[in-house]
Amino acid sequence: MSKTQLRWLALTLAAAIVAAGALIWVNSGSDGPRIVTEDRMIATPGAQLDTTLYLPEQTPAPAVLVAHGFGGSKESVDGDARELAQRGFVVLTWSARGFGRSTGQIALNAPDAEVADVSRLIDALAQRPEVEKDGDNPSGQDPKVGITGGSYGGAISLLAAGYDKRIDALAPVITYNDLGQALIPNSATAEQVPNTPSANAFAAQGVFKRSWAGVFFGAGMGGSSFANPNAEAAEPGVDNDDQLDAQNPAADAAGGSANGAPQGGLPPGLGGRSQQNMGPCGRFTEQICAAYTELATTGKASQATVDLLRSVSPASVTNRITQPTMVVQGEQDTLFGLDQSDATARQITAAGGKVKVVWYAGGHDGGRPGSSLRSEIADWFDFHLRGRGTDPGTSFEYAVQGALRAQGAPNVRTMTAPGYPGLNGTQTERRPIALSGQEQTVVNPPGGNPGSITSMPGLGSVVSGSNSLSSRLSIDMPGQVARFRSEPFTTQLLISGASTIRLRVEGVPGQPPPADGAVLFAKLYDVAADGRQRVLPGSGVSPLRITQLPADITVTLPGIVRPIEADHRIEVAITTTDQAYAVPTQPAAYTVSLVDNTVQVPVVPGTRSTQTPPMFALVGIFVVIGLAIVVAVVAAIRRRRADDVDPSLTDVPLVIEGLAKEYPGGLKAVDDLSFRVEKGQVLGLLGPNGAGKTTSLRMLMGLIQPTEGTIRVFGHKIYSGAPVLSRIGSFVEGSGFLPHLSGEANLRLYWAATGRPIQHAHFDEAIEIAGLGNAVRRKVRTYSQGMRQRLAIAQAMLGLPDMLVLDEPTNGLDPPQIHQMREVLKRYAATGRTVLVSSHLLAEVEQACTHVVVMHRGKLVAAGEVADIAAVGGEATFRVDHPDQAASVLGELAGVTGIEIDGKQVHANLDGTPRSKALGALVAAGVAVEQAGPRRRLEDAFLELVGENKA
After folding, report:
1. What are the tens digits of pLDDT across the range 9-56?
2. Are residues 154 and 233 in the same domain?
3. 384 in the same domain as 359
4. Do 119 and 242 fall into the same domain?
5. Number of DSSP helices (H) and strands (E) in the chain, helices first
6. How confident is residue 599, by pLDDT bands cut at 50, 70 and 90?
7. The model scores a pTM over 0.70
8. Exposure of 236 by Cβ count < 10 A (0-12 exposed, 13-18 middle, 19+ buried)?
9. Is 36 left (phi over 0), alpha (psi -120 to 50) or beta?
10. Are residues 794 and 881 in the same domain?
11. Domain around 707
């Protein structure tokens, strides 16, 4: 490296350090809009509820109830409440009865207790003038209200929505559908399993989940939340980075303290009763205490206990939930697995409700999600409570964890499918994977001890992840396990849900089966090529209780998301013991064999977006510094190259000649593309998906190199890092904003990174053009998708560049914002600058653009003025004062046919006759022409140019 380059490197490093200091300073500023809080006690039958109301800057506004997790209190969800309030919602949090400073006994979300409490809270919201009322009853007792919460709070969200129709939208997180099936699961059935990705058999007479139930019950006995630092105390809103918050997930999830206790601890007495004098039931009702005592002492549930657990489960009301529901579940969760969300989604859809399903890379064993998914939940309420932003729809998102880790969090990519398979008439794809393995005998030792080890309630989050220590600590005791393996895979297989397998289980001659039936545990392992490294994804295990032997059964394996790499195998293991469950103490032996020698694996195709793990602010700063150094060095080297300039084109914004891009395998994304853009034009780049539009824009920006052809901007040949690119403002690759900074701070940091003088940025003009208003001072993590889009367009306009290149700029904007954007582009081009827009909204292109380029399968199929393209075929319309006279004049012109009169309009097929000639003939004949143009719309011409039958 030369001395000059070293000097540039040193200067760049110094500038980056200064920028880093500025970033730290900006981050220490305002936390966003001012939020006013109001604490009060609200009386309900049987309890006094400690509540906090969060009021945003502007009211009236819709309200959102935020419920805490089991063992927490309203303090546990303070951060989530403030985030929603900063988004403009009135937010109400409360400590559920028996928790925090609220009185009353814990009834596990009973209809006449905790559910009735929520209705009372909605009554209170209806009395507040700050809360917007539903349009159908603006003066009554029906506020616009949504509800969200995690785990225990997620269950109350569902139950309340089933009982109280004033709730307009909900977002339950990492919760249960049927508490009986969550705590006493049975994954063996002789019946048909629902055709959804993670459906479970949900059979009766299950196996008691002793360890988790003990943690659960213990949290209601004493003064702390779950020992699990990522238990449910603060799971109300969730993120789709799908990574965990990096700062302190343990403190976040437990409500603010790393040891798992709620902030401030529990007040003495809990309603006048000291903890020491609570008795054996603690804060639980006698009914709940009796049910747990029965389970803990016998390992089985009577019908009365099953009925009780059902009555406090969302499954009891999902058949009447029709409100829009966003169901969020964790992929690392041995308490409430993916099967619980699957059942909820099925049941609400069957009731006629709109359901969106999200699986994220966390859960009770995997940690609290971060900010992006919480923002997605806020977007859900934004749309369904006040009609803002784009419709979130009913898509299905799931997170796929990679192996690389930073700050303790795995890399994650998110896959998105149009909908949750198995709902609304769709089917779940299941791939049969051949297994080998003979009939095998397994033994349950006396007392069920020693037992196999899988999940570790309370510790799983400490060592969680797809390749975590917990998933590698599974131990199957010799003599207690039967194994069935596949052949090594030749390509990666992405398992997305619960696989199923058919087994035959028989008793061993001379060994009578236990009176309670055979209890077994099924697992699915990812086995490395060497056969020694075995991973149990999500530490998942499916318990089985088989009451009659012999039996041919269908077993639903644990719901997981796991990429099985090439050369790896999958292994299904059937064991007799598991230390997390109550197992029979009577010794027994069974034979286990395959019925059809396959395991049916769910596969859900989707589009992929890669996301990096969250990092501390300083880590992000140093990454920026590193990138700045690399860019500076590369730019310094490239400046030495001779600048290829065509002097005859220095006033022409863009000339593309013979452009082509071919990828390995022979795929040609762009093929011999040529067109030219002049000053003052607004050019629309049109084409169906796969036409090559975005690839062309990426080559224009120097992001990828063409295989053939040239691109010249103001005469300069484009290459990666070409200086002339500074004359282009673009929005092609996505914004990459820092969520913890305000919109304005992001814009200033971006401009500082360009190295250009601040007086040339024109911040105020760009912000005004994009219509950001005061929102530019809010943190980006509070923005809706539409706001992020407008911020990205403002960033592209910084410096008022000579050419603006925008890829789908109206994504996320509502109709008024689209109209505003159309006017922005016209005004921008009216200054003599040029705008190039790629869009699929044909009507918007027709109204905003002066010229259009139509692409299909990488090739140019048409180019020219919008009016000329729309007029392909010669059909024209003239609005005149004397239609009959105009029709007569047009009929005398050679070649003009198909003349029709429609009121003041006259339509004609000019068949090659220039429209200007027809217009001149009309004027010469004394016909006043108010308007002249193509008869057809751009959409008609577009469909003709790139229709299904076009090669």
Report:
1. 444 444 333 333 333 323 333 456 789 999 999 999 999 999 999 999
2. yes
3. yes
4. yes
5. 23, 36
6. very high
7. no
8. buried
9. beta
10. no
11. 641-865
